[in-house]
Predict the 3D structure of the following.
Amino acid sequence: MTTNTEQWTPPTGPQTAALPAGTWWDAVRVPEDIGEHALGVLGAQSGAVINDRCNTLYWLIAPGSAATWNLYRVNVLGAVEGVATYLGVPPVDRLTRPGTHWRVPFTRDGYLTDPRLLYKALIRALLATATDGRRDGR
């Protein structure tokens, strides 16, 4: 698989830019409650993570590397023949709210997360959030 991941950098202007998933990266979309658990599991092994204004986290991974995933509350945004999917990507220096920002900052040499590690972290996060819900009587 040949990708353009080495040539990609986030926008440098003041605005969030809508960029196509599947070209430089795919994005793994996760609700914030699950995402925070997964971040705790991954620790320093996490690549860059985008947090949007709807409290959703997005990990960037190599294009096509999660095409077969089927996890509850987890969506993979990538290139699908005939359908364009875009993700709002903040400027590289936007690290806090309000609005879409980098939850884990972009770094040129480590913005992609290893999809195998992310998958395992998401499984653990899903199990933890399901257990937390049962403990609370939900």
